[in-house]
DNA sequence: TATTGTTATACTCTATAACTATA
DNA sequence: TATAGTTATAGAGTATAACAATA
């Protein structure tokens, strides 16, 4: 209304010059754009519909924490228990992980990675690295370390406030 | 197998002491956890099923770029054109935005926010700020600026490599 | 009584493909 | 011929609630 001379009634879509407006301060918006791109690109790279999203994360966590329970896994990946059941079904169907009964608490599954799973994990990890290679190339070591540090801080806060 | 003394055959799920393993280097994993939490918390705060996800982003972008086309919007939010159609249907049903025919190219919609939309945007922005208040509180000004800077760098890279 | 995992189910979100109207 | 937007549709992904076994 008080705009002096801006004829930009209709922004040119080809310039890519778009104002983020109110979104400039919103972390969630920036995070989501990156996440969308990364997850889509990752799915394209593996290009197997029997490897569902979350399978890489789950396999990595099982590998690093042998005997992990499904509940603990669900908390770590941020999905519901029921969703984790489906993920583990996939994982067992692939022969990459297995459920054993916990000795201390027979309600629990003790999750373990298999030999095949270890091989698959290597491949998935390589895919993930390749998927993020451009990012690593664009950031200095210091910047990467700083980014991870800040992201961890943010993540910690997310679960610190029970609000 | 060669583990000397660790009886940690089954990690205690209550300690929260879980090893990220291979995931430690993966940006995508860290981003996703945060995004999951943030989007879920945001949805809980607005608590209106007629306000679909993406509506806040879309409204903010339309507000900041009057006359924006749907294609440009779809590129910016990272969704398909068809998905953006549904978002705009919601937006118009809410009376928060409207489609006008572009004068220069009659195939295009020129998107504009309404008076009600401006009010709603204020509320949504406040919700987003509240949703991220804990994060802002935990980070210094410098850290926030640095985080945004790094995230922008990452985002730029995502679309720089056509790979 | 509370918790682990399971099943069945329904719902939300998103993309694909075919169509139209403009260019 | 190519692009902007639309429609119809199918599919992926996730959560909810009720249940069984165990604690």
From TrEMBL, chains A, B:
Residues 24-156 form the HTH marR-type domain. PROSITE patterns: HTH_MARR_2. It comes from the Bacteria. SUPFAM superfamilies: Winged helix' DNA-binding domain (SSF46785). One of its GO terms (molecular function) is DNA-binding transcription factor activity. SMART domains: HTH_MARR. GO terms for biological process: response to stress. This is MarR family transcriptional regulator. The lineage of its organism: Bacteria, Pseudomonadati, Pseudomonadota, Alphaproteobacteria, Caulobacterales.
């Amino acid at each position: 209304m008080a705009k002096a001379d801006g004829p930009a009634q209709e922004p040119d879509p080809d310039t890519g010059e778009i104002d983020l407006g109110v979104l400039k301060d919103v972390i969630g918006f920036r995070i989501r754009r990156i996440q969308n791109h990364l997850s889509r690109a990752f799915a394209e790279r593996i290009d197997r519909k029997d490897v569902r999203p979350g399978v890489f994360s789950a396999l990595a966590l099982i590998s690093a924490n042998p005997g992990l329970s499904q509940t603990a896994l669900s908390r770590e990946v941020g999905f519901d228990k029921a969703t984790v059941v489906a993920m583990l079904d996939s994982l067992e169907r692939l022969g990459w992980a297995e459920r054993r009964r916990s000795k201390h608490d027979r309600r629990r599954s003790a999750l373990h990675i298999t030999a095949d799973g270890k091989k698959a994990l290597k491949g998935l990890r390589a895919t993930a690295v390749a998927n993020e290679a451009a990012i690593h190339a664009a950031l200095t070591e210091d910047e990467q370390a700083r980014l991870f540090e800040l992201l961890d801080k943010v993540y910690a806060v997310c679960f610190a406030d029970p609000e």
